[in-house]
């Protein structure tokens, strides 16, 4: 179902999305290293992520609704620990 996250923030992203959206596929990719020296990268890592998620919960939803569902599941984590998040969300069979 998922690729194993490598750090504590990635693991928390994975845990929250699994609990909220019961994905059939989930990949949490830490893109932080490619943003070294950019705004929001403080050198500690785990600041920039890509989430690839497939979930039946997204059936019939548009892209904005899917992104809002992911953002809602992550809540305070986005405000406090994550500087940037790219979301690729789809329903099974898409």
Automatic annotation (TrEMBL):
Entry superkingdom: Bacteria
GO biological process: iron-sulfur cluster assembly
Xref: SUPFAM superfamilies: BolA-like
Family, similarity comment: Belongs to the BolA/IbaG family.
PANTHER family: BOLA-LIKE PROTEIN 1, PTHR46230
Protein name per Swiss-Prot or TrEMBL: BolA family transcriptional regulator
Organism the protein comes from: Rhizorhabdus wittichii
């Amino acid at each position: 179902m998922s690729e194993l996250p490598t750090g504590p923030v990635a693991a928390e992203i994975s845990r929250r999305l699994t609990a909220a959206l019961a994905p059939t596929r989930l990949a949490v990719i830490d893109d932080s290293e490619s943003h070294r020296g950019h705004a929001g990268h403080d050198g500690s890592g785990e600041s920039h992520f890509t989430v690839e998620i497939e979930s039946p919960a997204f059936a019939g939803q548009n892209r904005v609704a899917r992104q809002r569902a992911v953002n809602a599941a992550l809540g305070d984590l986005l405000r406090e620990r994550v500087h940037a998040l790219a979301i690729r969300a789809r329903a099974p069979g898409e």
